[in-house]
Amino acid sequence: MQQVSRRTFLETSAAATALALSSQTVRAAAGDKMGYGLVTYLWGQDWDLPTLIANCEKSGALGVELRTTHAHGVESTLNDKQRAAVRDRFADSDVTLVGIGSNERYDNPDPAVVKKAIDATKDFIRLSHDVGSTGVKVKPDRFYPDVPREKTIEQIGKSLNELGKYAEGFGQQIRLEVHGQCRELPTIRAIMDIADNHNVAVCWNSNAADLEGGGLEHNLALVRDRFGATCHVRELDSPEYPYQQLIDLLVKSDYAGWILLESSSKPADKVAALARQVALFEQMVKKAQG
């Protein structure tokens, strides 16, 4: 009888185990496709790009939305070589560049102001494509005296449709932050009903207004079908917002985007504070998954 060596036995056993595992369908739990990361406001606003990436890696916050005008310097004025350098720097790291956070808005009653904002957003769309991210955050913002709300809502929606169509050619998503005087979710729903381009999405922003009217679950349901790749939160241990309930609802609906911290405090050690938020997020997701 031929004797089998220990090495041969182990190799054969390992191969058999790998084959068995590969034949099984591994199903991810609801919520497993969510990631946690950072909006550079406030904690990252003073970090240059190498520092930002290093700090995100240290803390485990592995996605980032780069707010324009911050110290990272990723702006639409970058030339082709500089854009490639940004793309390569992220590609060589563990951090995903999720998107560009612009401050553009389309509510002004002056058509020239709106056109300027649309043109600036198109610049950001091209920038986002060139540096390897997937979308641009924009704002609806406010209403004006003597201008009917419905007119402003329609104007914002049509502007977003123009941008969504333009973004298609660059593989980008337009992410409308729930913001300003337009932050009530019925208003955002009305805007999105006009902005029906598939590249236009909602960026949830965790505002106090989310809890008004029918409450968080009701208001989330108004726009959940239009969620994009980003959802903004403040510190998850804040008592002012029911973050566990939000995570519960996102897990229940199997949201597959990025939960991004848009911080509201100024801790002495921002990297340690960010690592704590990562741990809280992981705990909340686990609790929501039951």
Write the layout of secondary structure elements.
Blueprint: H1 6-22, E1 35-39, H2 49-59, E2 63-67, H3 80-91, E3 96-105, H4 111-131, E4 135-139, H5 149-168, E5 173-177, H6 185-194, E6 200-204, H7 216-223, E7 227-233, H8 243-252, E8 258-261, H9 270-289
Parallel strand pairs: 1-2, 1-8, 2-3, 3-4, 4-5, 5-6, 6-7, 7-8
Helix pairs in contact: 2-9, 4-5, 5-6, 6-7, 8-9
Describe the 3D structure.
- Strands 1-2-3-4-5-6-7-8 form an eight-stranded parallel β-barrel, surrounded by four helices.
- The chain has nine helices and eight strands.
- With 290 residues, the chain is α/β, with parallel strands linked by helices.
- The longest helix is centred in the middle third of the chain and has 21 residues, at 111-131.
- The chain is 44% helix and 16% strand.
- The chain has a single domain (33-289), classed as TIM Barrel, CATH 3.20.20.
- The chain is globular.
- The chain starts with 5 loop residues before the first helix and ends with a helix.
- α5 (149-168) crosses α6, α6 (185-194) runs parallel beside α7 (216-223) and α8 packs across α9 (270-289).
- CATH topology grouping: TIM Barrel
Number of domains: 1
Mean pLDDT: 93
Biggest sheet descriptor: 8 strands, parallel, barrel
Share of residues in strands:
15-25%
CATH superfamily: Divalent-metal-dependent TIM barrel enzymes
Strand order of the largest sheet: 1-2-3-4-5-6-7-8
